[in-house]
Amino acid sequence: MDSLAKTLNFNHAAENLYVAQSTITYQIKAAEDEIGFKLFERSGKGATLTPAGFQFCMTLRNINQELKDAIEQGQNFARQYREDISIGLSVRTMIHKLPDAMIEFSKQYPDVSVTPKFGAEGRLAAFTSGSLDILFDREENVRRVPDIRIHPFYDCHFYLITKKDDPLARQKVIHLEDLKDRTLMVGGGSPPALRALQDRIVRTYGVKHFNSQNHDTTLTNVAAGKGVCIAPGFLNDFSGEFAWTPVDCEEHISCVLCTHAGENRKSVATFLDILLKLYQE
Fold first, then answer.
1. Whether the model pTM is above 0.85
2. Beta carbons within 8 Å of 9's beta carbon, 6+ residues apart
3. What backbone phi and psi angles, to 5 degrees, belong to 246?
């Protein structure tokens, strides 16, 4: 089917697959009868995909690629590792020292892999269902989740993000009153502690504010000179594109690592210990 979708010619598809044209014709007809809609329109010049056929073939192509990737990853795992530890977090910068921890861990457990799994949505559900071994999250999100162990990780503080040539970038610390007469980007999925800080700045100092959809949009607006923003330090990618200056405030985010209550593998305990020590130091 995929070969015909690419060539749109029964003869060429048959030649590519080293089968008779009648075999291709029969297989396509059988597939259409089974799924209940036409995949191809036949003509004297060859074949064209129907709209439904185009969507169907694209979906199959994606499924085949995912299957190929899964097989290759499984082969790699089978050759090198006897065990895997999966850790879930929204973005890579949240555990900036994760590569260092993986390197140190591999010295003690060369036959155990560590697989980071990134994504903002569904992490907690994946963890509670057993799809993740370790979860990075805010303490407020997991303190009432049953059957887990919560390991205090680090307190994430807030920073003012500005263009590097902004006068505020020359300061070692930003005091909230420094933001008078500036425009502050707010919103964008800010966690409760950050929203509280944003509200306090706007309410106390009369700072102009501008709603921003998400962090990437906010950074784009900062780069365009539309304003400045306050963000948790774990979003800093250390690219040097912006100035990140500590904000003098009491608000912070308590970040934790979670494991399952029944987790007793020594490898997981060792990896967790390595991560915690890296951040304590």
1. no
2. 46, 47
3. -60, 140
